[in-house]
Design a protein that fits this description.
Number of strands of chain A: 7
Oligomer: heterodimer
Number of domains of chain B: 1
Number of strands of chain B: 0
Helix content of chain B: over 70%
Largest interface: A-B, 44 and 34 residues
Shape of chain A: globular
Structural class of chain A: alpha/beta
Number of helices of chain A: 6
Strand order of the largest sheet of chain A: 4-5-6-1-7
Order of helices and strands of chain A: EHEEHEHHHEHEE
Strand content of chain A: 5-15%
Distance between the termini of chain B: 33 Å
CATH architecture of chain A: 3-Layer(aba) Sandwich
Order of helices and strands of chain B: HHHHHHHHH
Largest sheet of chain A: 5 strands, parallel
Number of domains of chain A: 1
CATH superfamily of chain A: P-loop containing nucleotide triphosphate hydrolases
CATH topology of chain A: Rossmann fold
Structural class of chain B: mainly alpha
CATH class of chain A: Alpha Beta
Chain lengths: 190, 240
């Protein structure tokens, strides 16, 4: 049985698509398709006008994907994890850049702590610190504000707004309210 | 609104520079993780030493018998300890979501995978190569046989890591994956085992060991070229 039929959208440069829906309606599946991780049963995903198969290089070049999974290695410190993820994507992974990104999210003090000792909120902050380092054009974020406190949510909203103002595109699944410019906001309810 | 410029530092395409950089990324990260969890590596090495030293205790201590069985036993011990370390290669990265990030990164996936396989061999295969001639002394292997054993292991254990990488990637996400991986990997390891232990046996019989070593080297080249691509394809399927 298909999760949904006739889902269609186009996100212009500088806009964010917010994907909403109850649990189990397929928000994560849609995001995984947009990120090029999962094959859709039917239909096409296009990036910059060209159809894209999963794992296609043009999409990978521009993509920053933050999923449910923490993507942090327990054996590495917060700073090492962030540096590894940033350098994997070709972003600035210098010690100074990593430190300032962690400081932006108020977890500079935890930079040298092994990831396994971090709290759920701190792990989420380390992942979101990637947004501060990244210059990718497409952000695909699955529930980015889960387990974050108000301060971190405000930081995320500001960072997303700056990304969109630069002309970037974002696809965000969330069921928490997100304050953002109505002109840059599109909604898809599954 | 127009398309924004990116400030990405990665060159496009899979040229030599980006392939080497990707290989270095996989190697450096996995070596750092291995260094942090070095007690697990010690467990794996102690396992190798224990398995290898059980046989001299249980077999008749006649020098001829031990020297004849030694290379085969040490090879089997090396193979089992390589299997023991197999789930570490991709399993954890798959569970914590790192593997999805790796597969979605702009870097060439087969090169990233090669780096991880190389790190896996450096921490699980290389110590076995170094230890085997020492353990060979317990089997009354002479210096020449010990050196040949080390040479055959040096050529053969990287093949185990490469083939193990394919199998490990194929069994990602399967329930009971590590047991399944062992079942799938063992038949693939058999030719390596035959030529590896055969090299020492041939020398002991007064024949040349070089055909065995040449075949191992050929196998290593073949596996080194094909395995990263096969493992990368398997990882993409597992993530779908």
């Amino acid at each position: 049985m298909p999760l949904w039929r006739d889902v269609s959208f186009a996100v212009p440069w500088g806009s964010a698509l917010l994907v909403r829906g109850a649990n189990g309606t397929g928000k994560t599946t849609l995001l995984r398709i947009v990120a090029g991780l999962t094959h859709a049963d039917a239909g096409v995903l296009c990036w910059r006008g060209a159809p894209c198969a999963p794992f296609a290089p043009p999409l990978r070049d521009d993509l920053l994907f933050v999923g449910h999974a923490p993507a942090l290695s327990d054996e590495l410190t917060a700073a090492e994890n962030l540096a590894a993820l940033a350098s994997l994507g070709g972003d600035d992974a210098s010690a100074a850049a990593v430190r300032s990104a962690l400081d932006l999210l108020d977890i500079g003090r935890a930079a040298g702590v092994l990831a396994r000792a971090l709290s759920a909120g701190q792990r989420r902050r380390v992942l979101l610190a990637r947004l501060a380092l990244s210059a990718r054009r497409l952000w695909v974020l699955d529930e980015p504000t889960t387990s974050l406190d108000d301060g971190a949510v405000a930081w995320f909203e500001a960072t997303l707004a700056a990304h969109l103002a630069r002309g970037g595109v974002a696809v965000v699944a969330t069921h928490l309210p997100l304050r953002m410019d109505a002109a840059r906001r599109m909604e898809l309810v599954l | 609104m127009t398309e924004p410029a990116t400030a990405r530092g990665l060159p496009a395409g899979a040229d030599t520079v980006s392939v080497l950089a990707a290989l270095r990324w996989g190697l450096a990260r996995d070596l750092a993780i291995a260094f942090r969890s070095r007690n697990e590596l010690v467990v794996q090495l102690v396992f190798f030493v224990l398995v290898a030293s059980l046989f001299p205790l249980t077999l008749a201590p006649e020098p001829g018998t031990l020297a004849m069985l030694g290379p085969g036993v040490l090879w089997v011990a090396a193979l089992l300890s390589s299997l023991l370390a197999l789930p570490r290669l991709f399993g954890r990265d798959f569970d914590d979501g790192t593997l999805a990030q790796v597969a979605l990164s702009p870097r060439p996936l087969p090169a990233l995978v090669s780096g991880k396989m190389l790190a896996h061999w450096l921490v699980t295969g290389l110590p076995v190569v170094v230890l085997a001639p020492v353990l060979g002394a317990a089997y009354r292997l002479d210096a020449a046989a010990g050196a040949l054993l080390a040479a055959s292991l040096a050529l053969g254990t990287p093949i185990l890591s490469l083939l193990g990488g394919i199998v490990g990637a194929l069994t990602l996400g399967a329930r009971g994956g590590s047991g399944l991986a062992a079942l799938l990997a063992l038949p693939l390891y058999v030719p390596v085992l035959i030529f590896g232990s055969g090299a020492v046996a041939a020398q002991a019989a007064g024949l040349s060991a070089s055909p065995h070593l040449s075949l191992l080297a050929a196998g290593l080249l073949l596996a080194g070229m094909a395995a990263p691509f096969a493992a990368a394809a398997a990882i993409r399927i597992a993530l779908d």
